[in-house]
Amino acid sequence: MNIKELILNPNNFFKNLADKDVSLKTPFLIVLMFSVLMCIYSYYTTSIMFKIFPPDMQNMMSIMRIISAVSTLVGGFIAWLLIAGVMHLISMAFKGEGSFKRTFEFTGYGFLPNLIALCITIPIGYYFLSNAHVPTLTMAQLQNPAVVKQVMSSIIPKPMVYTNLLIGIAVSLWNLGLWTYGIKYARNLELKKAFIVALIPTVLFGAYQLYSVAKFL
C-alpha cells in the first residue's frame, strides 16, 4: 500500500486500486492495528478510572476492565462492517454499481486517520493519566452522580479533553475525505453523490467518538 498517496492523493489512490482485484489484507491490518491500540488504551484508562472503587470491589472491576478492552477490540471491526454496510445501502439510492466486498475494502482504508490519531492521543493520555491523583470513593459517594463526575473531571484535565476533541474533529473530516473517494470508486459514483453517501456514516461515527470525549467536560 502506498500510504503517502493515500494521505496526499486519495483520489488517485482509490482510482488505481479500483483496477486491481479486491484484497482485504491491508485494510484488515489497518483496522486490526487501530482496534488493538484502542483495546490497550481502553484497558489502561479503565484501570486508572476504576481506582475510585473501594478495594473490596477491585476484583469485579478487573473483570470489567477485560470486558471493556475486548469490547473495544471487537468494536473496531463492527464499526468497519457497519460503516461499509451503511454506505453501500445509501449508494443504492444513487444507483451505485460495485460489489459490497469492494466497498468493504475501501472503507477499511478510511480508518487510517483513526490509527494515526491514536499514535498522538495515547502518549498524551498516558502523560496526563500517569500523573493523575485518583481518590478512592465510598459506596455512598459512588451513588452520587455529581461526586463521580467531579472526580472524573479532576482525573481527566480539560487540556487533555480539548486536545482530544480537536484531534477527533480533524480525524472525522479526514475520514470523510477518504470515504468520499473510496465510495466514489467502489460504487462508480459522481464525487458529489459519493460525498453525500460518505457524509452520513462519518457524522454518526464522528459524533459517537466526540461524545465519548466531550462527556468529561
UniProtKB/TrEMBL annotation:
Q: Where are the transmembrane segments?
A: 28-46, 66-94, 106-129, 161-182, 194-211
Q: Which InterPro entries match?
A: Yip1_dom
Q: What is its main location?
A: membrane
Q: Which Pfam families match?
A: Yip1
Q: Which residues form a coiled coil?
A: none
For this UniProt record, give its keywords in alphabetical order, as a comma-separated list.
Membrane, Transmembrane, Transmembrane helix
Annotated localization: Membrane
Does the entry feature the keyword Lipid metabolism, yes or no? Answer: no
Membrane topology reported for the UniProt record: Multi-pass membrane protein
GO CC annotations on file = membrane
Superkingdom per UniProt:
Archaea
Yip1 domain segment(s) = 5-208
Asked if the keyword Transmembrane belongs to this entry, the reply reads: yes
Q: What is this protein called?
A: Yip1 domain-containing protein
Q: Tell me which species this is from.
A: Methanotorris igneus (strain DSM 5666 / JCM 11834 / Kol 5)
